[in-house]
Design brief:
With about 160 residues, the protein is mainly alpha-helical. It has nine helices and no strands. The protein is about 65% helix and about 0% strand.
């Protein structure tokens, strides 16, 4: 009896509702039926279902009234998660100079280790002869760190210091 009364009340409300509201409500109900008719024992919502409900939430204020397969709070959570994912994607690191490959870094360290008198300009010239494009500043950054030069008096200072 209660279901019949609710049906009559909805029919009366439908007389006064706008055509756009009726179309959106019909679309929402059809989408829920499509989800429930899937062959899984418990129908799962896929990404397109979630996008549908997020879009409906944005454009129709009465979306909560027709929602039966999930709770409205879940749709709001999807919206927040999507917002978070969007800004995480938007703020990812894209710009800047590409990193130097491990092979080039190893080559620079090997050349600097085997030729201790060579500086960054000489190693840069040799690497350019191999056909590799690397700046001299990058080469100086990846050269082996050499100990600071000691003065001739450092041995005396250690003895008397």
């Amino acid at each position: 009896m209660l279901n019949h009364a609710l049906g009559v009340a909805r029919a009366l409300l439908a007389l006064f509702a706008s055509r756009a509201d009726l179309i959106l409500e019909n679309l929402a109900l059809r989408q829920q039926l499509a989800v429930l008719q899937r062959t899984h024992p418990r129908p799962r919502l896929c990404a397109s279902d979630r996008v549908f409900w997020l879009a409906l939430r944005r454009c129709w204020p009465l979306w909560k009234e027709t929602l039966a397969i999930v709770q409205p709070e879940i749709v709001i959570r999807w919206h927040r998660e999507g917002f978070t994912r969007y800004w995480r994607w938007k703020s990812r690191r894209r710009a800047g100079r590409p990193s130097t490959s491990a092979e080039i870094r190893a080559l620079v360290r090997r050349m600097a280790g085997e030729n201790p008198t060579w500086g960054a300009p000489r190693i840069h010239g040799e690497i350019q002869k191999l056909g590799l494009e690397v700046s001299e500043r990058t080469i100086s950054r990846y050269m082996l760190r050499r100990p600071a030069r000691s003065s001739p008096f450092s041995a005396v200072n250690r003895l008397w210091g």
